[in-house]
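Narrative summary of target 7.
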Amino acid sequence: MRKFFFLFMLLSSFTGLLSQDTQSIMARIEQSKGNKRINLIASLPDYPSDIPGQQLLVWGQELLASARKTNIKTREIQALKLIALGYSHIGEHAKSLEHYFLSRNLSKETGNLMTEAQSTSEIGNLFYFAFNDFYQAIEYYGKAEALYRSLKDDFGVIKHQNNRAEVYTKVGEYTQAVNLYTEALAKLEKMGKLQDSARFVVYLNLSRASAYMSNLDIADDYKKKAENLLAEIRDPWREAQFWNLQSNLLELRGNYLEAMDAIIRTHEMMQPGLSHQSELGTARVVMSNKIQMGQLALKLEKFDDASTYLTEAEALYPKSQDRYKYSHLLLNKARLLHRQGKLEAAINQALINADHCHTFHFLLEQKEVYGHLSQLYHQQGNLERAMYFAQMRTKLEEEKLQPNIPADITSIIMKYEQGRLRQQMGKLKWNNVLNLFVMGFFLLLLLLISLRTIRKIKKHGLEELKRVEFRHSKDLENLQDQLMAFKDKKSGIHVEKAEDLVKKLILLVEEEELYKDCNITLEVLADRLDVNRTYLSQAVNSLWGNNLSDFINYFRIKEARQLLLQPSSQSKSFLTIAFEVGFNSKSTFNRVFKEKTGLTPKQYVQIKRKNGSPLKCVGKLI
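Modeled conformation, tokenized:
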């Protein structure tokens, strides 16, 4: 299980400390009226986390109305950010996201790079923490980083490099994370001792990412560097972070008892610092610690302790709303039930987690859950279900995490990203005839190019399809020539014997449709033909001119071409057809289909159906 302590650094953008000055301002705001009240609201710090969300919304709306009335854009941006923060505090994250987009777009319109960078960063935070949409978070952190580069704000750049690296670590892309951490570290080292605390955090995260890549010696080196800095920093919160890392590394080495001592020590050292965190931040930190304690107690076979820790973590979920950590919690609960001999309950718990991971597209966790379900069903004796989840896990091996954004969030992104483009286009004022003529000319040119392209597709579509068929027939002719002339001097295979063996192989693969098995191997085929695997490999390589995979893919593409044009297949997706003919991923199917035919499956179907050409089946190899 992965632990990510860099959460605390990112939460700082949500959880600024409330100073005595802020408390004084709050009291003065309530006692004031008119312009004085508006000025006091405007003097609030950027992230007053201890002020109730509803109060922030009231003040933000007052400031917004005043800013629009007086046309003060900087205050309008400030008001939008204040409203966004208020909505975030009360858990209405979609509205918070919408107002940060408004703030970002207005900042862009007025050329205020700093507030644009701040709003973009907050959008990234919302995608990361509120929506658990990691790749959207990476995208907006990257945009914020680019803005801070324009401002020549090195610390802003470093912060967002760290943010992106943290998210890359969470999705298992450790090389990307290490590269970003290393780049940030190089900048920090040039800044000198003033940035020791920031360097300490980067050392911790480099150590953790290296450990997840199984580079434990490198992880120890970075941990040692962090430990040396800790003696100079003398910060209890940083010391708690260090012991959290220590717990992670000890767990990876199998020292579960020492790891448990380290995480308990971490949790105790955090208590003073948590008093300054928001309710959201506190809930997330404590929930993460409790899950880690429960996991270690489970590995130590202290089932009662594990149950207690996991129950405490689950009680924090409504406050933390950390769906990612909740998947880890459910996984450990299922494992606990399994270890307690409650097999049916463990299966039900794992199925709930599988649905949770699927809903929020946590592919790494989903893969782990599928593996556990396969194990549970196998123990139950339900081999069919065990095989199903084992295959599902295999399919996920080739998947990549993709954004899985709820519809309401998608509409906000589309609305404000497109709105931003419209604002930029609005700056181009078509206030004379020449501009209108130029725009009309380019539209007409685009139309003519489109019409010409359509005519070319109609004219050459059938010709391209014929070239595909001709290419396949030439492949067959070349193979026949190889069969007649072949004599492999290196392997010593006689041409007649090799020809007979390949004929038997083709007959076996075609008649029993072995190519539909995505796990077919050379060993299986050699056993079926009762021949040496090396001999079979040499025969296939010499006669076919390529490896077994290419040989099997020939039959898969042949079958796929037939299926694609069957009326019964019109309702099927390309992924379904790919699975039916033996491919285990859509990307592999598309690549091989393009290699064999020169067309993608979609292009192939369009051309065939458009021209009404009958399917020309590829003949026997021999």
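The chain has a mean pLDDT of 79.
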